[in-house]
Amino acid sequence: MGESPLFLWCKDESAEGEEKAKIAAAESSQSIKVAEHKGVVGAMAVDLDKIRAAAERVAASHGLDVVEVEYISAAKQRALRIFVEKNAAERARLAEAARAAGEANAAEEGMVPVAVANGTLTMDQLAWVTHEDCEQFSADFGTLVDVEDLVPGAEYTLEVSSPGLERKLFQRPDYERFRGSLLKAQTFQPVNGNRHWQGRLVEVGEKEITLDLSAVRQKGKNKQVGRQAIGQKIELELVNIEKAQLVAEV
């Protein structure tokens, strides 16, 4: 349910200022984050903090939350990617409606992914975003970007989608929400001689998370750890996590 809509809007000022909309659906869309705060194209700066603030204003009017903002610049191609999900109140309302219908029936009727009925996803973990949500947000936000000239220059592509099944986690509340899920993480500083870890998120403390490494087959430096006793765990401090994302189990 709404885990992979992708909408593309291309601004082209060279064609007599005419804006063209292109809508496409992509399965389990993924993105690469290349800029954390500011991206620069020649002498033209793109302020992601300002863009995110604008996106959050538009998202709020549609009952959405902004999960992440990315700006990609490669050669002559530029893309602004906005990842959204229903806000907490809407997610709770939709989950309650699906529970009332029964998870199996809700899956059959397309209210939730089949993975929910299979137990590999919970309704609390869904973004609940539809194609219509992305389309409406894209139209309104794209207009605001142009009016406020948030992406200077002639051409860019606006992509709006849900975070997907392998969404990135940023703050402690994200880890709390996805407790029990498979997770892969990369740390700034090595832990037990390694910076790359994958396991099931079993505990979330005030300043650290705990992964159960026995939940997945370990690779590389982690192989020896994986061969040890069942229930082997690794503790990672939140401030030491450079990046983390879910691992799809569908």
Give your account of this protein's structure:
Helix 1 (48-61) packs across helix 5 (131-147). Strand 1 (5-12) and strand 2 form a beta hairpin. The longest helix has 17 residues, at 131-147. The radius of gyration is 20 Å and the shape is globular. The chain is of the alpha+beta class and 250 residues long. The protein is built from 7 helices and 13 strands. The strands form 3 sheets. A 6-stranded antiparallel beta sheet has the order 8-13-9-10-11-12. The protein folds into 2 domains: 5-87 and 126-165, 2-Layer Sandwich (GMP Synthetase, Chain A, domain 3); 169-246, Roll (SH3 type barrels). The protein starts with a strand and ends with a strand. Mean pLDDT is 79; it is low at 2-7, 9-43 and 226-230.
